[in-house]
């Protein structure tokens, strides 16, 4: 297939390299030439781990027009902070019948793209979809060189509206048979595991990030995620997310069941699951609280919209709110004002039943 990969961080590189090795015609776009130059100099993307080899791409370009033209599938592998910007730019060059997948969407990514396309009055018949989490567990090992620790066993994904999901997954199966149908983008958005495993440990164990920055060999899941934070904060965030899901009427699966589904790893607690997950052993500790976008991206685009949904549904989210407040205080920035909300995602004023009807049945943005 002809595939456009938007984003050349370690996730975009892993995706582009792997799909090229599998024989697809892959084009890679980045806003930053410094990300593209190493790929051009190496003549491809070097992968190791679960996938070994050099992925040779059809095109490497800083021109969005060039990369998107003629592609059957467009994979957006960027922080959720960039989703609205990328959608705004794609509105001028995206083509009929193309599939746009946010990998991942975090909380509300597909809804935000839908609203952006609607605002630009896009009339192209484009499928917009998101997956619950990124398919690969991966980390950079050097210029144009990525280690893939694991390709997840199963990742849930949905189109918006969900009536398009079956056709979307049939097309995606040529690339990734690992994708499975979610009931809607509300399921993928609310059951967003990054909201549980990323912001709280970064903010509450920031001293370990300073030690990593000083040169100490620390690992994120082994060292930065402490048992106390896992048991007393992360498990509560997971519980609050499940309560929001139940109030809205979308499928609920707690984070431990998610790890069993995606990684085949089990444990009596979330902390035990994380320590049992040998695929996580290679993840280095971040060296700054803003590294890996675990705070900068996931507080406004995972936690804030989950809290907004909770408020709309009458569900209290005190732990989620506390972590957002901690981020605001620690970084002197108002993430509440910046983050995604029910209103910004086009769900304002809707009852739970109306929200579900909207994501299940449409209308399509070109009909809105």
What key attributes describe this structure?
368 residues, Rossmann fold, alpha/beta, eight-stranded mixed sheet, N-(1-d-carboxylethyl)-l-norvaline Dehydrogenase, domain 2, 12 strands, 15% strand
In short:
This protein is α/β, with parallel strands linked by helices. The chain has helices spanning 10-21, 33-42, 64-68, 83-90, 109-119, 165-172, 185-190, 194-197, 199-204, 206-213, 220-224, 227-248, 255-263, 270-276, 298-313, 318-331, 335-338, 352-361; strands spanning 2-6, 25-29, 45-49, 53-55, 59-61, 73-76, 99-102, 127-131, 136-142, 145-151, 155-160, 179-181. The chain is globular, with a radius of gyration of 19 Å.
Explain the overall architecture.
The protein has 18 helices and twelve strands. With about 375 residues, it is α/β, with parallel strands linked by helices. The chain folds into two domains: about 180 residues, NAD(P)-binding Rossmann-like Domain (Rossmann fold); about 150 residues, Orthogonal Bundle (N-(1-d-carboxylethyl)-l-norvaline Dehydrogenase, domain 2). Strand 7, helix 5 and strand 8 form a beta-alpha-beta unit. The two termini are about 30 Å apart. The relative contact order is 0.12.
